[in-house]
Amino acid sequence: MTANPTDPVVRAPYGAVRGRWENGVAVFRGIPYAAPPFGPRRFRPPVPPERWDGVRDAHAFGPTAPKPPYSEAFGQYLSDPSVPGDDCLNLNVWTPDPAPGARLPVLVWLHGGALTRGSSAVPVYDGRTFARDGVVCVSLNYRLGVEGYGLFPDAPANAGLRDQLAALEWVRDAIGAFGGDPDRVTLAGQSAGAISAGALLAAPRAQGLFRRAVLQSGAPEVSDRAKVRRMVRRMAARLKIPATAEAFASVDRDVLLRTQAEVGRLSSPVLGGPAFGIVVDGDLVPRDPLEALVAGDAAPGVRLLMGWTRDEYRLWLVPGGLLERVDRLGAVALAGARARCHCGHDVPRGYRSLRPDAGTAEIVGQLVTDHLLRVPLHRLADARPGSSYVYEFAWPSNRPGLGACHALELGFVFDSGDLPESRRLAGEGAPEALADAMHAAWVSFVADGDPGWEAWDATHPVRVFGAGAPGTVFGPWDREIALWATDGPEAVTEPGSRRWSRLRG
Questions:
Q1: Contact, 184 vs 239, CB < 8 A?
Q2: 406 among known catalytic residues
Q3: For this structure, is 147 an active site residue?
Q4: Among residues 147, 169, 312, 409, which one is catalytic?
Q5: Verdict on whether the full-model pTM lies above 0.70
């Protein structure tokens, strides 16, 4: 192919890359930030890629990390392209001005997918709208599943998180040549991407690589090492091999992915089955990141934007008819939720008193959502008043049963609601004004550290993006949250009743 003389060319750390101008935005796709993590590098920390001579075309998304496809039930709602190839540690850049000296703010995006699925090639994550509005947008791939988060006695833990750190170091060294300012980087992620961003917030080795962070539908957390190890051992038992990285590296990738999908089929956030997760490793993750951030000795001066959707759980339960099955289980499902959330009988009873007409699935779903998201994010905001901003996405999807579910907000954040992949979740007729408002809030936060409403303080301001014009409500606004910090539902309506030191779970 003959190069277009007007195509933008930038000298990246390992060689020059040629992008394309698309609707006034310079786009570079599939730039390697680390070497292919296979062969002798499989299950090992990332290493720099080999340098290349000449100019490398960066016109197409690079290979995606190995991953199993979504089930048919989830595939009708979520797009997850797969691009074959070994060179899966790559990233993409959208910039309005690919020239040194532009010093534009930078957004680095970590995709979600439960650390087992997802990629930077998902069309909903197109960074053109951020570049259109003066932000250099970077998205990246990282290792997933057992390749990225398996726990072995003969390999370092958290390989996928180490990939993300390597990408951030690439941004520090290279983004200036693409028109970005390495001193104005915001790290953002959704779901597993937000959990990853939270871990990097607290990681000593990541300090100074970004000055702001966005945690959407994910809170800083670590998984129990024994639970992750059990996931690996169950896979090893099915494969009839030792539970070591050396043995796993000898297994065909497709066989490994099928086995991973079979063992992890009950790993939904609500069901709480075996799953991969970030673990304390004594190195990159020296301690629980939430506790490090709440204690105030991690990421000093980093401003936070944190949010969730009103009905997160509906994406976990609606596909495949799980919502109806949980309703039928009744008390058994509630008992499982209490065990999942480490809470006593009084907490679900309080939820029921506040939502007397709700079915069991709604009670269970909101209970798990609060345990995983709202409670830890409230804790984090309480620990960092004046530099934290909190929001809720409350617009209900036009698709039946989904409500304001997990991942629905992403088409609004990226202002990509015109794409068929966004309409899989939102349905037809999603309000453009809401996308304008939510996207503008993120752009403002990335640019200036202020999304446009009050920072968190004793009044607990929360911006609500719903069916009408966005507005701010003040706490204690979420009465279910208060149940986790009070003696019971009778104390929920008393503004001074919160005692976070008594958090359960």
A1: no
A2: yes
A3: no
A4: 312
A5: yes
